[in-house]
Write a structure and sequence with these properties.
The chain is an alpha/beta fold. It contains seven helices and nine strands; from the N terminus they run H-E-H-E-H-E-H-E-E-H-E-H-H-E-E-E. The longest helix has 11 residues. The chain binds S-adenosylmethionine. S-adenosylmethionine (SAM) binds next to strand 1.
Length: 176
């Protein structure tokens, strides 16, 4: 398999990354996990709104680039998003992880005891529709605590290289 496919490398355009962050309820000082941070396309607008960013990236070279690029402004964690240790205090998630990782990641974020407040995650369109539907995986466990809604469609041309399928943002918000 070519390395880009193996790592699910589809970099988000600056404008789409800014829109993704603007769709979230994050404000100054909020703790945010940028999952599958790549080289920082989403990290930049997160810092611009004053978030405290933890950039999670499994690829060793990209984790290094993130440290070089952001220095002390960002905590870079080289880890697999599927078995990430989650914060014990309230946190948000904004990310464009590889499509192959999203189901395992969402199950983890929605597990009982999670302190997640909100998530804006780019998914394969079909997967986003499934997670926002009444038959979403595990909804009988998390459905009382979180609302799941479909967000904006992200056109293939917003990624470099473009993915083979359409993408869409899934919104998850803890109920008040
Ligand atoms: C679709 S790219 C997104 C990069 C960046 N966030 C952006 O939007 O431009 C997905 C990123 O997730 C990383 N990645 C792949 N598998 C991962 C995993 N299991 N855990 C965490 N990151 C992973 C890849 O190396 C890649 O940088």
């Amino acid at each position: 398999m070519d390395p880009a496919r193996r790592w699910g490398w589809h970099q988000l355009a600056e404008r789409e990354a800014a829109r993704l962050v603007a769709s979230s309820p994050i404000g100054p000082g909020a703790l945010v996990l940028d999952v599958g941070a790549g080289t920082g396309a989403i990290t930049v607008p997160l810092l611009a709104v004053g978030a405290r960013v933890v950039a999670v990236e499994a690829h060793p070279g990209r984790a290094r680039q993130l440290r070089d690029r952001f220095g002390d402004d960002v905590v870079v964690v080289r880890a697999d998003a599927r078995d990430l240790r989650l914060p014990r205090r309230p946190y948000h998630v904004v990310g464009n992880p590889p499509f192959a990782v999203t189901s395992a990641l969402l199950r983890r974020l929605l597990q009982p005891g999670s302190r997640m407040v909100s998530a804006r995650v780019v998914l394969q369109d079909q997967a986003a529709r499934r997670w926002a539907s009444p038959s979403a995986p595990g909804v009988h466990r998390w459905g009382r605590a979180f609302d799941a809604e479909l967000g904006r469609r992200v056109p293939r041309r917003a990624f470099r290289p473009p993915p083979p399928v359409d993408a869409r943002v899934l919104h998850l918000d803890r109920r008040r």
